[in-house]
């Protein structure tokens, strides 16, 4: 299974939804919280090509995007293929 990284905030409902979706699939992920961490948020923004919102999700080397992107990947059947690596 591919490594999953999610940049998130403790107070973000979209982050919670994305983490719940991943957990419902039995996916373990590494969470990087940007709360009060301007350098971490800046690194996330750089890695995403300018996106500043959370969550930002990577599966392996693929930047999936945010929660809506993750849900869309699930609905289209692409999420399982990404997770399989």
Task: Write up what this structure looks like.
Strand 1 (4-8), helix 1 and strand 2 (30-33) form a beta-alpha-beta unit. The termini are close together. The chain is of the alpha+beta class. Helix 1 packs parallel to helix 3 (67-76). Helix content is 46%, strand content 20%. The protein has 4 helices and 4 strands, in the order E-H-E-H-E-E-H-H. The chain has a 4-stranded mixed sheet, sandwiched between helices.
Summarize the model shown.
The protein has helices spanning 13-24, 38-47, 67-76, 78-84; strands at 4-8, 30-33, 56-59, 62-65.
Share of helix among residues?
Answer: 40-55%
Helices and strands: which structural class? alpha+beta
Mean pLDDT: 96
Shape verdict:
globular
Topology:
Layout: E1 4-8, H1 13-24, E2 30-33, H2 38-47, E3 56-59, E4 62-65, H3 67-76, H4 78-84
Parallel strand pairs: 1-2
Antiparallel strand pairs: 1-3, 3-4
Helix pairs in contact: 1-3
Keywords:
85 residues, alpha+beta, four-stranded mixed sheet, 4 helices, globular
């Amino acid at each position: 299974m591919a490594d999953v990284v999610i940049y998130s905030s403790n107070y973000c409902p979209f982050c919670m939804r994305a983490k719940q979706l991943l957990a419902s699939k039995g996916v373990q992920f590494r969470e990087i919280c940007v709360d009060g961490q301007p350098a971490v948020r800046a690194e996330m923004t750089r890695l995403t090509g300018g996106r500043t919102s959370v969550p930002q999700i990577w599966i392996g080397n693929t930047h999936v995007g945010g929660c809506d992107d993750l849900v869309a990947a699930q609905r289209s059947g692409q999420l399982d293929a990404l997770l399989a690596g």
